[in-house]
Amino acid sequence: MPLLCDLGYDRVWTTAFISVAGTLGVMIPPSIPFIWYGITASESISDLFIAGILPGCLVGIFLIGYGYVYWKIKGEDKEKIHASVSVMRKKGFIQVFKESFFAILMPVIILGGIYSGVMTPTEAACIAVIYSFIISQCVYKTLSFKDYPEVFRETLKTLASVMYIVAVAMAFGRVLALMGVPTVVNNAVTSIFSSKIAIILFMVVIMILLGMVMEVVSALLIIAPIFIPIATSIGIDPVHFGVIMIVVLATGFVTPPVGLNLYVASGMSGVGIMPLGKKTYPILGVFMIAALLIVFVPWFSMALL
Fold it and tell me: Which of 4, 63, 143, 221 could be stapled to 169 by a disulfide with Cβ–Cβ 3.0 to 4.6 Å?
C-alpha cells in the first residue's frame, strides 16, 4: 500500500483494490482452505491445488485488467512512477533477486514437491517449516535459538484457536450427518428449485452471506457437509465444487458493508469503512463476473486435472 500511494495512486482505491485482490491468497495453492475442504470432502488435496490454479489466474487477470483500464481513464501520475522505477533500476534487479532468492524458493519447494508426487501436502508443510527455520537463522539472520520459545508460543496460540474452530466444526458436521440433515436439506432444496442453475445460485447466495460474517475456513467447515451432497446430486464434480466454495466465500469476505476483510483493511490503512465500501463495489463487480465464470464453466477448474 505505501508503495502504490507513493506512486500517486489514490489511498482509498488502493485499500479497496488490495482488500479484494488479497482474497486470491485462498484460491492459489498452496491454500489452507483447499486443504480443509479436501479433508472434509475426502478429496485429493493435490487435485484441489491443481484445480485452483486457473481460477486464481482468471480472477487475477480480471482484477489487473480493471486496474489498468481504471487508471488509464482516470490518469496516472507518470512523474512519480518514472521516479520510482528509476530508483529500482539503480538498485538493480539482480541485487533484489539475490536478497529474496531463498524466500522465493520456499513455495517452489512446497508446490514442486506436491505436484511431482515426491511429497504429500503434510510432508511438504513439515519440510517448509524446517526450511524456514534454516534460512531464517543461517541466511537472513532474523532468528536465533533464544527466539525459539517465543516462536513456539505464538505458533501454539495461533493453532489453538484454529484447531478449536476445526474441532467444533467437524463435530458439528458429524452431528448433522447422524441426524440426516444433509439429506433433508438436499430434498428440500431440490423440491423448491426445479433447475440446476437455480440450485447453484441458491448455494452461491448462502455462501456469500456466510462469507461476509465468517472466516473462509470456518464457513467452509460448517456448510461443506450440507452443500456437498446437494452439489453431487445435481452432477457437480466435488473438486470443482471445492473451487466454487472457496471462490464464492472469498467474495463474501470482501462484500460491503459487513465483509470482514474490509474492516481489517480499514483499520490498517485508516480509511473509513463507508468510502472504502464505495470504492470496493466496482472492483468486487469484476471479481464476481470472474467468480460466476468459474461457477458455471467447470473447464477452469478441471482443465489441468
Answer: 221
Cα distance between residue 30 and residue 35, in whole Å: 8
Q: Kindly report, residue by residue over 132-178, the tens digit of the pLDDT.
A: 888 888 888 888 888 888 888 888 877 776 677 677 777 877 787 78
Peptide bond into 121 cis (omega under 30): no
Instruction: State CA 83 to chain mean position distance.
Output: 33
Q: Are 109 and 127 in contact (CB under 8 A)?
A: yes
Residue ranges per structural domain of the chain:
2-91+165-302
Per residue in 223-249, pLDDT tens?
888 899 899 989 999 999 999 999 999
Task: With both helix axes pointing from N to C terminus, report the angle between 196-213 and 181-192 in degrees, rounded to the nearest 10.
Answer: 120
Which position has the higher pLDDT, 121 or 62? 62
